[in-house]
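LAB NOTEBOOK - FOLDING QUEUE
OPERATOR: T.R.
BATCH SIZE: 2
PURPOSE: Compare the predicted structure-token outputs for two unrelated chains run back to back under identical settings.
PRIORITY: normal
REVIEWER: second-year student, initials M.K.

ITEM 1
FIELD SEQUENCE / FIELD STRUCTURE:
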Amino acid sequence: MPNTASERQLFRISLRRVLERYSRWVEGSRHLRPLFTTDEEFDKVIHILDPLEFELMLQSRKYKSSEGCALAALTVGKRNDYVNTDSQRMIYFRRDLFSERSAVHELFHFLTHPAFTEAFKGNIDVDEGFTEYFTMKVIAPASDPALPITPASVAAAAASASAGSAAPSARAPEGPKSAYEPFLRKAHQTRAFLKENIIPMLIENQRTDSLKKRVAESSSSAAAAAAAGGTGRQRSNAVSSISYSDFTKRAYFAGDPEMIKIIKEQWT
């Protein structure tokens, strides 16, 4: 059975929600173009299958439904996705489990930078943990950003919404979610540790190195001027630095090697 009009509409609503929050990070992705053209092009990329078809697809690709989010959906790319800038990813959904929540989750897999995917290849907990982290930012945007988002907190938001005291967007995720809880918790813990401990240390080290370089350049310039018989004009060259702001987004969406490195060092 091909994708239906209502299924396409649901997926495009999910896509709009992702882009409303993360467009600056993903708008240049080569994978997005077919989703904004004709239904025919859309259906070459997004495949919503009946349960038996979905299971046969998993078997043909040697996946198990217990791996990551493959119970409800699977995002796939060519083996050379990391180096081939022309390759196109595809998403397969199991029709009876297809929902806005599963669509948002798979869209983040779909838009992950291939450098991030390559760096954590085989580490399902990293891939699923950060994918679910971004998913919950879209699914439960009313949650307190200072607190870890858990199924319990999402359920509370849903209860509040049903009572008419919250925005409609603050609703509980649909479909299976229990498999993500340990991954999501680890992603929150890793981000918190990096943000509170590692990033400040790296920034301080960067400032110290920058100051040392400026002092060395100033001394060298003064010595050269004295040797030439005059004070001359002292000049301090700008010292390049690494920005650690938005480190999670820069790793996941932009494939920044430095940001990927610090996450990898903490996750192992």
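ITEM 2
FIELD SEQUENCE / FIELD STRUCTURE:
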Amino acid sequence: MLSTNSSILKNSIFILAAKGVQVASSFFILIIVARYLSVLAYGEYTFIIAFVTSLMALSYFGIQQVLIRDIARDRENAGHYLGVALRLRSYLTATAVAALFLSIKFMDLSAEATIPFIVAIASETFLAFSMLGRAVFQAYEKMFYEPAIALVYYLSLTGFILAAVGLDLGLTGIIAASAAANLIQFALTSIILFKGFVRPELYIKREVLRKFFVDSAIVGIGVFLCQNLSRINVLLLKWLGSLESVAFFQAPHNTVLQVQILPAALIAAMFPVIARLEHNEPEKAFDFYEKIFRYFFVLNFLIAMYFSLFAEEIIRIAFGDKYLGAVPALRVVSWAIIPLSMDMVSNVVLVAMNRQRYIVFYAGLMLAVNILAGLFFIPKYGYMAASYIALVSYTGLFLFSLYFLSNTGFKASFDKVLTKTCLAGILSGAVVLLIKGPNTASLALAAVLGAIMYFGVLYTAGIFKKNELSAFASLIWKKEW
């Protein structure tokens, strides 16, 4: 088990380095764009991105997850699997792009938004193909390239965004900056992939393509539904509300989604190991899953609570006073951090177990519930309704995934973890509220003492087990990785 932990730790460090660059750059870009554009322009910007990515999600189709799984299990045929994945992605991307161009005729877009809409399509196309190469890096458990590519991409993106703002190029310039950075990322990923790893085979066996399509279709429909669950409220607010309500919802909502980058990094590093462990040593798999669940829940509970308690300070510092209307939305939607991160864990485990068909069911159900609730509540209550609906939808995703995972034999003592974590959260939150004041020093002191109280209570309650902590410390001290 030590070698497994070592592999995860090493690859997690590389991916976390990449995601650290991504988090810093993403938050910086989010703040720059929101402050540069007017509230209405920012609403139109988020709507364009949400609509384009909602249809382009069809091109992902679970291809990356299946590619990682197949190469991790059978590296000798990696070129063939990559060729299959590339051909399938090409077909799906062409379909998505055609649908997007067709939708322009029926969209209520302003004249100024049409060109940014087309540029956004190009940007997402470059991203879709670059993600295939990065999936191969993960399959080979060679995560070193992730931070290098991420650094180049985000430095380019930041530079292009700053140039667009400095030259006052408006909405078109902002989206064109993303397209240029994605083109650079695609080119760099392709060069590394072809020179250092594997080239896609041109001859494709039909039976392999058919099986790959079936497997990825099940994952892909689930991914498509889950991804669009995070975008549907933006679309509903645009169609049923106003651009201002889109901005006041999406500013905090997008902030919460950016927080998911770090949990996603850990899951990405763990996925090849989880797939191999489930295939070769299933008897050890459930114990490994239980640890992941426990630590993910505990850490994300604290993050969610802090975002809710410090919502006004976050909005004021990050977006400025013109977005103070978004503070109540952040107080609500910040709690979605917990189910979002936990659902990522459940989904990966279900895919590793080849039970991805369940994801399609509950993701589709929650998307339908979200749409129906949005149609009823958003016209009456605007972006606050969207915030509560998003929180309920994400929580539903996690509860369904946990239910289906438990039916496979996984039994997490989640009730005990939940009770102890909530107790620690109540005590920690009380400390924060008692100390927090208007000045920076009191805010920092409240945050630090609240975290000390939180982890202290959890350690006393036995959430952090001594043997696990000592094993992790030994792993680092001995430099096994």
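REVIEWER COMMENT (ITEM 2): DSSP finds 19 helices and no strands in the chain.
FOLLOW-UP: none requested
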